[in-house]
Amino acid sequence: MCQVEEEYHEQLERVDTPSASKKCVKCKEELAAVVIRAGDSYCRNCFRESFIHKFRAMLGKTRVIFPGEKVLLAVSGGPSSCSMLSQVQEGVSQNAHKKLRFLPGIVYIDEGGALGQRKEMRQKATSELCDMFRSTGFPFYILPLEQVLDLPGSVLTPSPPSDQPGSGYKAAVDLFLQSGGSGSDGKAEEQEGVSPPAVQESHTRLLQQLIGSAQTLTAKQDLLNTLRQHLLVHTARTRGYSKLMLGDSCTRLAVKLLTSISLGRGAQLAQDTGFSDCRYGDVTVVRPMREYSAKEIAYYNHMFKIPSVVVPNLDTKTPDKASIQRLTQSFVTKLQADFPSTVSTIYRTGEKLQTAGGSSSAAEDAERCVLCVCGLDTAAEEASALQATLISEQLSRSSVSVKPEPPSTVGQCCSSERPCGGAEGASDCCRSSRDHEAAELRSLLCYSCRRTVRDMSSVTHLPQYVLSEVQRRQNRSAMKEQISEFLLDDADEND
Amino acid sequence: MPVLCSSCSEKRAVLKRPKTGHSLCKACFFWAFEEEVHRTIVAAKLFRPGETVGVAASGGKDSTVLAHVMKLLNERHSYGLELMLISVDEGITGYRDDSLETVKRNQQQYELPLKIVSYEELYGWTMDAIVKQVGLKNNCTFCGVFRRQALDRGAVMLKVDKICTGHNADDVAETVLMNILRGDIARLRRCTAISTASEGDGVVPRCKPLKYAYEKEIVLYAYFKKLDYFSTECIYSPNAYRGYARTFLKDLESIRPSSIMDIIHSGENLSFREGVKMPVQGTCSRCGYISSQALCKSCVLLEGLNRGLPKLGIGKHHRLHEKILSQQPLTEREERKLKSVDF
C-alpha cells in the first residue's frame, strides 16, 4: 500500500524553479510574463490567447450548449465566476473570432440575509455588482436568497427536458443558421433587477432561523448550498433558460470532490463535479471553468483587469477546523503548495467517474432526495457502511430494542437514527409527532443529506416547498400501497 | 453525576463510543463491538464452516484484537473455523523482533498455531540490509510489496483457505482518500471491498473483518480487555504523503465523527466511467505470482536489489522488463539512472 506514493514523490519533488528571464514557451519570442505552473511560462499575449481558447475549446468539445440557447450565468462576485462572465462577454462580442452563439443572462444571489449581514452591507455589494452587470448589456437578475422560501415544490422534481427540435447538436446548428442566426430577442428583454426586490424582514428572520437550526457549520454550509442551487435552478426554469453556468474552477472542483467524499456523497460525486449535470431535467448545469486553476484565473483577472467583488461567505474568517468544507479547502490548498500536482490529480480522478443515472434511468421522483435531487443511495445492502452504522446505533441503544424495528414506531422515544438528547436537551423527549416528521423527511433523503438534517435541531424551519413535497410524496406512496394489489408492475410512476 | 449505560440502563457508563457517541458500560461495549464484527462476518459471508483461516498477526493492536475476536466469535457462534496466526518477519532490528515476541505470547494465550515467514528466507534480504542499500527514502515500497507476497506464501505453506487482516475503518477511509489524491482509479475501485476474490494460484483470498470498526474503538477494546499488544512505530516508517491523508482524516473525524463511515459509504457507492483503462491482471513470467506487468513488482524489486540497481522498481520502468527477462545487459545510461540515490 505504501509503495506508490513514494514513486510519486520523485515526480512531485522535481519542481523547476522558474527563472525570471525565460522566454514564452508558446511563441518563443517574447519574455515570459506569467508562470502558470512549473515549466509553463507564457508571455502576456499568449497567456490571453490560451486562456480564451481553453474556454471555447471546453464548450466546443462538450457540445452541450446549442446555438441560440438561453444560458444563465451564475455569478457570485468571486474571481472565478467573474472571469467566466468576461469570457462569455468576450465570446459573444462582435469582434470575436468565432462568435459564441448562445444568449447569456446573469443571476446573482445575495446571501447576506443568511449570514446576518446588515442591510447597508448587502446593498453595497449588490449595487457594485449591479453596475458590473449593467455594463455587459446582458439581462440580469439580482435575487435575495430569501426568495427561496417562496419556491414551489416543483423545484424538487426534475422536469423532462424540453426536446430541442433537431435533438442533435448538428441539427441545432443548422436550424440556427436557417433562422438567420439572430438571437436578438435576448437584447430586447429588459434588464431586470436593477433595483433588487425589497426583502421583507420577516423573510430574513425565517431564513436565519433555518440556517440557525443547523447546529454545525458543516450542515449550515451544506444547507445554504442546497438552497442556493434550488433558487438558481428555479430562476433559470421560470425565465426560460435551459442551461445554468457555474464558475467552478479546477481548484474549487478538487476541493468539492474531496468534500463530497468526506460528506458521504460518493454516489452523487460525478453529478456534483462533472462538466454537465442534468439532475433537474429541463435545466442542465454546466461548469465551463473547470480546467482553469484558481491561480491561473487570479493571474488573468489581475493582468486584464477583470473586476470581481469580495462577498463574505459562511466560513469567512473561520478557523480550519470549523467545518468539513473549510478543512478540506485548507487541506487541498496546503498540499497543493507542497505538491503542485495535487489539484489536477484529484480533478482527474473525478473525470473518471460516471455520471450515473443522469435523467433517464433513476428518474422516478420517489427515488430522489428531496434536498439535493440526486438518486437515493440508502438501500442499506448487506455488509455496507450504512448497514454497519445502523447496527452500531441499534446495539448501543437500549437493549429492549435489539431486534430491528420499523422506523416509525410512534411512542418510541427516539426515532431510528437519532439518539434523544442529542441537540435539543433531553427534557422533552417524547415529541413523537415532531420526531415522526423528521423520520418521514429522513426516509426521503440521500445518505449525505440525512447527515445534514441530523445536525439540525428541528426540521420545522425548512422551507414550505420542501415540507409540502415531503407530504406529497408520503401521500403518494401511501396511495400506491393501497392500490398495490391492482398494479401489474411497479415500473410506471411517471406523472 | 454518573452517566448510565445507554444500552443496559443499569450499570455506570465507562466510555463514550467514538463511533456513535453513546455512553456504554464495559460489558455492553464489549458485546456491541464483538456483535458488530460478527454481523459483518455474517452479512458479508466471509467464511464457510470447515475452512482454515490465517489471521495476519503483526503484534500490533489491530491484529491482536482481530485474533482475539476471531477466536472468541469462532467459539461463541460455532463458525467451525480452524484458526492460525501468520506473521511476517521483515528483519527490522529493534522493531519487528520485539513485536514478534508479542505474537509468540499471543500464540500461547490464544492457543493458536503460528507460522512466521521471513524476508530473509523468502528473498534473501532483510529490511535492515535493504535499507542499507536503498536508504531511508523508498524502503516502504520494498517492505509493502514483499509483505503482500510473503503473507500469501506463508498462507500457501500453512494450506489455509483464507487470510484475514486487521485493517480497520480508519485504514479503509484513509486508503479511499489516498487513492483519490493519487488518482489511482483501479485501487479506488477495489479498496472498499471487504474481501478479495480468489485470484489464482498462490493467491489466497483476503478479508477485513474489522472493516467497519473504528480505530479508536479497537484501542478501547484492547485497553479494557487488557490485551497484550505492541505499539511502536516502525523505525523506518516516516511516510510523509500518507501522513497527510491520515492527519486529514483525524481532523475530519474530530469535526464529524461519522466522517470515517461516510467516506467508506462514498467509496462503496462510486460509479466509474466505462472505458477508463484499467490494468489487466496477469501472472508474473518469472515467479507466477499475480501481476499486471510481465514481471511482478517483487521480482523487479528483487532484481534491482541483486543487481545493485535499487531504483529499478521505484517509478515506472516497464519497458525494461523485457530486457530483464531476457537477461540482456542494461545500457550505461539506464544503469546510472537506477543506481542508488545520494543523500
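The longest helix of chain A spans residues 217-238.
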